[in-house]
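Figure 2 data, in text form.
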Amino acid sequence: MSAAAWRLAQQAVQASGWVDANAQASPSAPWRDEAHWRVLDCGADWVWRLLWTWQLWRQDPRGPMALRYDVVCAEALGACPVGEADVPAEVWPQAQALGGLWPCVQQGECLPLNGGALRLQVHTHCTAAALAQRRASAHTVFA
């Protein structure tokens, strides 16, 4: 993952309104004081948006207690795209946790992360109807 791709992932999350210009949790973030928040990510480089979202969520004391991150991929996942040299220091702990669970991610298991408060699931070969249902229940969609 290049530094440019990481910046694009950050920009996508910043466009969600969760962060301010200093990349800190925004006081007006839409997830503030919500009990749970659901993200649907249908785009390439979803791993980087997940790591950035996870980091912001962990830093925000008024963020949702539970975060659900659903990913829809057109095809099966290959090797974990997170390499030690690629990962910014601020998300390295999350990247290590994700990398260690990558075989489970590839199998589509619903993974409890961050003590179970964050749930990640990757859906491959998703039907149009299933995608529409997930999109309708998501608070934030990355395409």
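Caption note: Helices lie at 3-15, 46-59, 92-100, 102-106, 128-137.
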